[in-house]
C-alpha cells in the first residue's frame, strides 16, 4: 500500500484578487505535492476559497452584487492564477459548497450535543474587519491589537466553544510533538502565549441580524457560524467529498478515515493562532486526530514596504508570470527566502537570479549540450566511453543529491532543496570547463567528446528530475531537449534517480531558450524605477482583474515582448521603405483585405493588407506608410502582394505605421 500525503493551503478570502503571498503558499504546497507524487505516494493537495463572513459580504455590497455572485466571480481569479502557475491541486474547495455546509453543521451539532458549545450573553469589543472579539485587556490604545483599527462595544447573546478546557492538553501536544508547529520560533511563540495567558472560550456564532452571509447554526437558526469555524473545517470536509477515492472506495467516511489527518497545513504567520489554537482544540473536542504539522511561513513585502492596496504596491503574480514565465516566479519565491522567514520582492533581485541562475547556469547548459550534440553527433546522444576521474566526480555529485533533497523537503526547507539540486548544475558547468568539449572537437577526439556530452546530457536528465517539483514545465523542456519523451508527471523518483537512465541514440530537440536573459535597460518603469503613473496603471489593472469573467479567462495571455534577440546584421536584412499609398480598394468577398498601390520611389507596388476592418480604403489614400520591400511576393485570395505594410495591433484594432514628417517615397526606414 502506498503512503498517503495530504497537504493544504489556507483557503483564501474572495474579497480581493490574489497576490504574491497567496501564490507563495500555493507554490510551496504544489512543490511538496509534486515531490510526493514523484516518490510514488498517494497525494491529496487541497486549496480553495473562503467565501463567507463579513469581509466578503462587505466586498460584495461595495460592488453591488449578492455575496454568492461576487464569490463566483472572485474565486475564478484564484483558479485562473493556479492554472497559470501550473498548480497541480487535486481539489478546490469553496466554503459555499453544499457538501461543506453539511459537514460544518454536523460538527457544530456534535460539539453542542457533547456539551462543548454553550449560549452566553457576551459583552466585549468587536473588530469588524477582523471579525473577532477582544477583551478590554487585549486592546492596544483602545484599538484592535491585530490591525489597529477602532473597535465597537457589543453586547449580545452568542454561542461559545469551550476552548479554554483544552489549554493544558494543547500545551502537552505541542511539547510532545516538536514538529507540530514549525518553524521553531513560531512554535515557541505559541507555547509562550499558551503558558502565560489564560485561554478563553471562542465565540463561534454571529446573530443573523448582524451578519447573514454564513452557515446557519443547526440548533439555532437565528445565528450563522463564525467564519473561522466554517473555514477551518474545510480541511476535514474536503476529505469526504473532494479527496481521491480511498483505496477504491468513494464512501465519504472511508475517504475521511483514509485522508485525515493532513500531513501539512501550510499557512502564513498571520493565521497561525487560528490554526494552532482554534483548529487544534476544535479537533480535540471532536476527538479527531490532529494534523501532522502546521507550518507558518513568513511575510512578503515589496521593496521593503508592506504591500497594500492603498499603496498600490501589491505584487501581482500575473504580471510577473506574463513577463517571465511561471517557473521563474516559482523558482524565485522558493529560492530567495528560507521558508519561515519574511521575504522581500524586488525586481532587481528577481532579474539577478533570473539572469545568473536560470539563464546562465541552467539555460546555457542545456543549449550548449544540445548544440554540440547536433553539431558533432548529428543530433543523437552519443554513448559514454570509459569513465575518467572528472566523469566519476560528476556522477558522484549527482548521486549525493536525492538523499539531501529528501531531507530538505521533509523540513520544508525549499531554498536549501534548490541549493542542493543546483550543486549538480554548477558541477556540470564546471565539468564543461574541465573537459573543454570544443577543444576535443578540434582535436577530432570524438570518443572522449561523446563521453563528455553523454555525461552532460545525463546530468541534465537528473537535473530535470530534481527540479521538476519546483519548475515542472522547465524540467519537461529539459527532458524533451535531450530526447526524453516520457512525461515527468508520470515518473517515479526511484526509477529515475540512478545514473545512466538516458539511452544513447536519443534524438535531441532544439527548442526555445529556457530563460532568455532579461535586459535591464528595458526595466525602467518596472519595480524600483516605477513611476506614479505606473502605480496608477497597476491599480487600474487590479480593478480590471476583479471584473474579469470566465469567458475572458479563455483569452490567451499576452506574450512577453520579444525574448529572442537578433543581431543588427539580421535586422539590416529587412528592407523597410517609406511608401505613399496612391490607390486603395477592398478585395472582393473579403472583410479584411485591401488592395493598395504604393509608390516606393523606384516603382509602384501592389500590396495586399489585412487592414480592412480598421480602415475604409478612402482613409488610406495619400498616407505615407512603411513597407517591407524585400519580401518574396505572396498571393492572398489569388491576388499578388509585392510587400507588406507595417501596422500595430491590439486585438482586432489595427493602426498603420506612418511617418510624421514629409518623406520622399522610397526613403529607407532603419
Ligand atoms: O486568512 N506574504 O485568507 P487570506 C506571505 N481565509 N503570505 C501571504 C501574504 C504576504 N504578504 N499575504 C497573504 C485568510 N498571504 C483566511 C484563511 S484558512 C482555513 C482561512 C498568504 O486571503 C498566507 O498564506 O487573507 C496567508 O496566511 C494567507 O495568504 C491569507 O489569505
Outline the fold blueprint.
Blueprint: E1 4-13, H1 20-38, E2 42-50, H2 54-62, H3 67-84, E3 91-94, H4 98-113, E4 117-127, E5 132-134, E6 152-161, H5 167-176, E7 181-182, H6 184-196, E8 202-203, E9 205-207, E10 216-217, E11 220-225, H7 227-232, H8 234-241, H9 252-259, E12 264-268, H10 272-285, E13 294-297, E14 300-302, E15 305-306, H11 317-324, H12 326-336, E16 343-345, H13 347-377, H14 389-399, H15 401-410, H16 414-435, H17 437-442, H18 446-467, H19 472-481, H20 493-496, H21 532-547, H22 550-553, H23 568-572, E17 576-586, E18 594-599, E19 604-609, H24 617-620, E20 624-628, E21 634-636, E22 639-641, E23 644-645, E24 647-650, E25 653-656, E26 668-669
Parallel strand pairs: 1-2, 1-12, 2-3, 7-13, 12-13, 14-16
Antiparallel strand pairs: 4-5, 4-6, 6-8, 9-11, 10-11, 14-15, 17-18, 17-20, 17-26, 18-19, 20-23, 21-22, 24-25
Residues 10-13, 21-22, 24-25, 50, 231-232, 234, 267-268, 270-271, 299-300, 307 line the site of ligand ME8.
How would you describe this protein?
43% of the residues lie in helices and 19% in strands. Strands 3-2-1-12-13-7 form a 6-stranded parallel sheet, with helices on both faces. Strands 17, 18, 19, 20, 23 and 26 form a 6-stranded antiparallel sheet that branches. It has a 4-stranded antiparallel sheet with strand order 5-4-6-8. The model is unreliable at 522-563 (pLDDT under 50).
